[in-house]
Amino acid sequence: MLIRQIPIRNALSNYMYLLACEETLEAIAIDPLDHALCLKVAEELGWSIKTVANTHHHHDHIGGNEPVIAATGAELVAHVEAMQAIPNVDRGLQAGDTLKCGELNLKVMDTPGHTMSHICLYFSGAESESPALFCGDTLFNAGIGRCDLGGAPELMHQTFVEQIFPLADDVRVFPGHDYIENNLGFTLDREPDNQSAQSLRAEFKAGLSAESYVSTIGLEREINVFFRLDQAQVRTGIAVSLNTDERELDDQSTFVGLRRLRDEW
Ligand SMILES: [Zn+2]
């Protein structure tokens, strides 16, 4: 699979993606908010956009659909339950569906939590190419999406337990926003001794570019505090910050507590 990760450099630091089949150069555009830039990049690469896929209905993900479709005739796909919220969806997707483009196959994951109807797209890898997850506002580098814009943190936790935590360490993570530096700050606020988060933050301070940085699930297990619910420092910190008895905290309440603290951080 050919992947182009395109930072939009707007106030919300959105990413959009172009994914193309190596054989046919037919492409999927994921959340192409900056439609002019998306079309320009596709043209420069010689890729022809056949599908526009939205991870969820928020405006910063669907705002570029119309002009991209007008210019390319692409089919619009989204979560079947987001079809009322997103204008002109041609085809609704459900868990387990395969999104095809040329020879390229992506598995549709139904991942509620940020919104109630959110999909991630999973590429299972190929010879000498590791798997990849296009995760919208479900999983970010070193963090997770908000749950107060039409979602629910308990459901987000369930999504992570059932679908994100079990992913293999070599899965590359391609999120909907570039929030890694801020998120590392939150991980270190909760877990000041986290060596992996410290050293990655130092690399960014020394000039590593965040907007082209690609993490993996294996790295997320180290630097993303939402993956680290059983760490003593995390659990104790939640009990102190939320003024609750640590013995009453389980993984879900720790996750929900982290999300609440992150909202206010
Ligand atoms: Zn969103």
TrEMBL record:
Q: Which GO terms describe its biological process?
A: methylglyoxal catabolic process to D-lactate via S-lactoyl-glutathione
Where along the chain is Zn(2+) 2 bound?
D60, H61, D137, H177
Instruction: Report the top EC class in one word.
Output: hydrolase
Q: How is the cofactor bound?
A: Binds 2 Zn(2+) ions per subunit.
Residues in Metallo-beta-lactamase domain copies = 13-177
Pathways involved: Secondary metabolite metabolism; methylglyoxal degradation; (R)-lactate from methylglyoxal: step 2/2
Q: Fetch the SUPFAM superfamilies from UniProt.
A: Metallo-hydrolase/oxidoreductase
- Tell me its EC number(s), please: 3.1.2.6
Cofactors needed by this protein, per the record, are:
Zn(2+)
| Binding sites annotated in the UniProt record for Zn(2+) 1 | H56, H58, H114, D137
Alphabetical UniProt keywords: Hydrolase, Metal-binding, Zinc
- GO function terms (MF aspect): hydroxyacylglutathione hydrolase activity; metal ion binding
- Where does the source fall among the domains of life? Bacteria
* The keyword Zinc belongs to this UniProt entry's keyword annotation: yes
Looking up Pfam families in the UniProt record yields: HAGH_C, Lactamase_B
Q: Does the keyword Hydrolase apply?
A: yes
Tell me what reaction this enzyme catalyses: an S-(2-hydroxyacyl)glutathione + H2O = a 2-hydroxy carboxylate + glutathione + H(+)
The record, for InterPro entries, names: Clx_II_MBL, Glyoxalase_II_hydrolase, HAGH_C, Hydroxyacylglutathione_Hdrlase, Metallo-B-lactamas, RibonucZ/Hydroxyglut_hydro
Q: Which HAMAP family match?
A: Glyoxalase_2 (MF_01374)
Q: What does this protein do?
A: Thiolesterase that catalyzes the hydrolysis of S-D-lactoyl-glutathione to form glutathione and D-lactic acid.
Q: How does it assemble?
A: Monomer.
> What protein family is recorded?
Belongs to the metallo-beta-lactamase superfamily. Glyoxalase II family.
Q: What's the protein name?
A: Hydroxyacylglutathione hydrolase
Q: Which organism is it from?
A: SAR86 cluster bacterium
Q: Which gene encodes it?
A: gloB
